[in-house]
Design goal:
The protein contains 19 helices and six strands. By secondary structure, it is mainly alpha-helical. It has a domain of 53 residues. Belongs to the SusD family.
Length: 494
């Protein structure tokens, strides 16, 4: 991250700006970009923002609002969009309408292409997090419960954002300070060291948080699952341990979440899973834009006329055919539009579109089903095939619960006696049909399974693309490399 870029970003990401931003965003009077907010006329400033409980809370809440408020090409939906385009779950109706979409879809990203959404967005938020950690750590006037809770949330958020940086780009600079002069002194840090820092942040978060979801005061319990708790920390830890192939720790962390049966359950209808505050939800983002539920609903649900230049995305035949006969997830989470005598299946996990005044859906960032899939994989890799099959069958049980008389052969349980290799194949497909269009899982899964070259060589031919192995990682923007002499590009993009 260059000094020039950081000066610009940090100028607009200090606590004072955060406080102003949250007041504007949450009141829903503006959807302007975070960096475009005018200087506030207020007596609150960076020197005293952390001396008051309400303004300190507002600083951290502003980070959630920023994550939620950015439009879908930059916000939380971006991670559920672009990696899916890069992989094999989506089709693009028109390659001429949106250059962002086309470059990801055809795996033709270029270091000179400045509109790759993740690098700048993720680091910008990390700088805000670092500044808030420093401000809170130096405060002596806040309610201790509030200060500790906020710090726990911030360390969790930093871990969450670094997880995506390291999985999109590989080795990345590890920045834990808000001092912009230090940014050009940091070369790329090895992936295993980034993971170590992620786990360290999660350990701090675990000590600072509890099992409760709290309201805007941070002192009262709430049914809103929009601020992370210990379960969110354990859920992200389980994911990180799985990616690191530390299978016993991944199993243990996932089990801690799954065991919270009073709070989380898979025993709910498929149509209820993506409703706000469902018992499948571990952590979600609350919408803050007027008349929006989720950007996913607005982006993925096709209009009656079918895909067009504004809504060009639909589900690939390969994903559609990955569902086994009788799997009710296919019916519940995939919609269909017929246009010009052609069927267009589209992601319909989120169904509410722009203009609906009632907020019924939140963007879910962590949910219970992933924990069963993590534990199944961790158990299988430890040769506990019985336990792995049992976890996969929890999701099969849920899927066939919605079967109707018109589905005479609902999805069966997996049979006992499957080999470890067979279960690996099952898990990869189960992750695909359960987690499609969520969090970039498919792109990350085929890479860590060692199948990305095999799959993408075949898929790229259908996209008029040209797959090469180095494209498994995204390029770092050339502008940052030119301004930061120690920052090196990913191989293949020079």
């Amino acid at each position: 991250m260059s000094i020039q870029q950081y000066k610009k970003r940090f100028l607009y990401n200090n606590p004072l700006r955060c406080f102003c931003c949250i007041c504007i965003v949450l009141s829903q009077y503006s959807c302007r970009k975070y960096l475009e907010l005018d200087p506030p006329a207020t007596s609150v400033n960076a020197s005293n923002v952390y001396n008051d409980n309400s303004t300190a809370i507002a600083v951290v809440t502003a980070i959630y609002a920023r994550m939620s408020n950015t439009f879908y090409d930059q916000g939380p939906t971006a991670i559920s969009l672009y990696p899916e385009l890069s992989a094999d779950n989506l089709r693009l109706f028109s390659v001429n309408a949106n250059l962002n979409y086309t470059r990801h879809y055809q795996n033709e990203l270029d270091q000179r292409y400045i509109n790759v959404p993740f690098w700048n967005t993720l680091y910008s938020i990390i700088y805000s997090i670092n500044a808030a950690i420093e401000g809170l750590s130096g405060s002596v006037n806040l309610n201790t419960v509030i200060r500790d809770r906020l710090l726990g949330e911030l360390y969790f958020l930093r871990a969450y954002h670094y997880f995506y940086l390291v999985n999109l780009y590989g080795d990345v600079p590890l920045l834990t300070s808000s001092i912009y002069q230090e940014s050009i002194k940091v070369p790329r840090t090895a992936t295993n060291e980034i993971y170590a820092e992620i786990l360290a942040d999660l350990d701090i978060a675990r000590k600072q948080l509890n099992n409760l979801y709290v309201d805007e005061t941070l002192l009262n319990a709430t049914s809103e699952r929009i601020r992370p708790n210990i379960a969110a920390v354990n859920a992200l830890s389980a994911r990180v341990y799985l990616y690191m192939k530390r299978y016993p720790e991944a199993e243990d962390a996932a089990t801690k979440v799954i065991s919270e049966t009073a709070m989380y359950t898979s025993d709910i209808p498929l149509t209820e899973i993506f409703k706000k505050n469902s018992k499948e939800t571990i952590w979600s983002l609350q919408p803050v834009k007027n008349q929006f539920n989720t950007d996913e609903g607005e982006l993925f649900v096709l209009p009656d006329g079918g895909p067009n230049d504004v809504h060009p995305l639909y589900i690939s035949d390969d994903l559609l055919n990955s569902f086994e006969p009788g799997d009710q997830r296919k019916a519940a989470w995939i919609g269909h539009i017929n246009a010009d005598n052609k069927d267009y299946p589209y992601p319909a996990k989120y169904k509410a579109r722009f203009g609906e005044e009632t907020v019924s859906e939140y963007t879910i960032l962590l949910r219970l089903a992933e924990q069963y899939l993590i534990r199944a994989e961790a158990r299988n890799e430890q040769n506990n095939t019985v336990g792995a099959i049992a976890d996969l069958n929890v999701l099969h049980t849920r899927s066939r619960a919605a079967a109707s008389p018109q589905v005479p052969n609902p999805l069966p349980d997996l049979p006992a006696g499957l080999t470890q290799t067979a279960i690996r194949t099952r898990i990869l497909n189960e992750r695909r049909v359960e987690l499609f269009i969520e969090g970039g899982h498919r792109w990350f899964d085929i890479r860590r399974a060692g199948k990305i070259d095999e799959i993408m060589t075949k898929v790229s031919a259908t996209k008029n693309g040209n797959w090469q192995s180095f494209k498994a990682l995204y390029p770092i923007p050339l502008s940052d490399i030119l301004l930061s002499p120690l920052l090196k590009q990913n191989p293949g993009y020079n």
